[in-house]
Amino acid sequence: MGKSLKDMSRQDQAAYFKSKDYCGEQLKVVMDAVSYGINTDYLHLFEDTTIPVETMEIMFTSMKEDYGVKEAAFLSTVHKEESGRILLEALKAGVPLSELQGIYQNGMLPIELREQILPLMQGRRAIPEKIGEQMEFLTETVRELKESLSRQNSFIEDLKKSMEEKVEIFSEQEKETGASTESIDDAYYLELEEQFRQAREDAERLLEEREETNRKIRELEAENKHLHEQLLIQQSYVAGLQEQQRHKLQEGNQPEKADCQRYSGIAESNKQSKSAPSFSFPFIRKKPGLLEKLAGELDARQIAEVRLGIEDGLTESQLALLADKAMDAEKMRELRMTMKILNERGQGT
User: Fold this and answer.
1) pLDDT-based confidence at 284, cuts 50/70/90?
2) Domain locations along the chain
């Protein structure tokens, strides 16, 4: 007794299906399912070698997504590829198998099947990983609906042509209505033609005005350029005159400067001659021994007191008395202040 698929290894399962009478594409799908590790409950469905390869591929997709053995078995009975894909998309969208089984009939056209399944898909929440596939399904549905509308439009156009060719089907009233409509259209087109003519005239007038404006602009630019050149010439002429005047002023001022310098030199020499006698202390001129005393006998603080006495206006005798080396600077300061006070009172000697 042979082993069942459940008891076989993957190699044995592959050898088992290879022994079946499959065509090349069918065997490839089955081998892919075995290699993928599809459960043996699903693999039993591939034992029917009459299933088309397209249906096997749809079954394999449902097996990978694990929609259920019953669902895969139902898809194996649908031998039209387009119908099988529609049913697979419905399963992905969450439509129950029982409803699909109630809708599908053998020999049903794919477009009829899609029209009946589409309302069932509305309001149902698609499985998250199948949203992209559902969008593709809806896109295909919309495309087919557009094709259907296109065919309907084509039929309507053919019907219109047929009605136009058979004029006798129109009533007299319809003819009168058509004539009035035609007259209205003629009046409308005449009005449009008049508006177009007026617009063309306005455009031509605007073009002429623009050309005239451009001509005036060119004339003004030429005049402006001429005035600018004249202005540059005048500025150059004025600059030349200013340069000549400046040279003349420089040449005229040179003798005057020489005279001024000569006069200032004479005045300076006279001033120096008048102020030549340098300041000298009267007591130094009359009593040269006092200078020697200041230079050799007194220290710096004592000499400072004598200088302050000179500034205070002490007399020669008072200065000679003050310049005593025996007195320290403090005593000399007190003596100097006393002499100054006496001189201010008129009691100094």
Assistant:
1) very low
2) 5-160, 282-345
Structure tokens at 306: 């004598």
Question: Among residues 15, 63, 13, 69, which one has the least CA distance to residue 41?
Answer: 69
Contact 282, 316 (CB under 8 A): yes
Q: Tens digits of per-residue pLDDT, 47-57? A: 888 888 898 89
> Per the structure block, which two tokens stand in for 57?
């591929």
Dihedral angle at the C-alpha atoms of 103, 105, 107, 111, nearest 10 degrees? 0
| Per-residue pLDDT, 256 | 53
Which CA distances in Å does 233 have to 226, 228, 236, 247, 334?
A: 11, 9, 5, 22, 86
Report in angstroms the alpha-carbon separations of 282 from 12, 81, 285, 290. 150, 146, 5, 11
Q: How far is CA 312 from CA 26, 108, 284, 298, 303, in A?
A: 142, 145, 17, 19, 14
Q: Cα–Cα distance between 103 and 108 in angstroms, integer? A: 10
In angstroms, rounded to a whole number, what is the distance separating the alpha carbons of residues 81 and 84?
5
Six-digit token pair at 338?
Answer: 């006393």
| H-run or E-run covering 58 | helix 53-64
Minimal CA–CA distance to 319: which of 331, 306, 308, 332?
Answer: 306
Q: Looking at the predicted structure, is the pLDDT value of residue 149 above 50?
A: yes
Whether 325 has a pLDDT exceeding 70, the answer reads: yes
Average pLDDT over residues 299-312: 87
The DSSP-derived string for 115-168 is HHHHHHHTTPPPPGGGHHHHHHHHHHHHHHHHHHHHHHHHHHHHHHHHHHH-GG
Maximal C-alpha separation, the chain: 170
> Quick one: pLDDT at residue 2?
59
Residue 264 has pLDDT above 80, yes or no: no
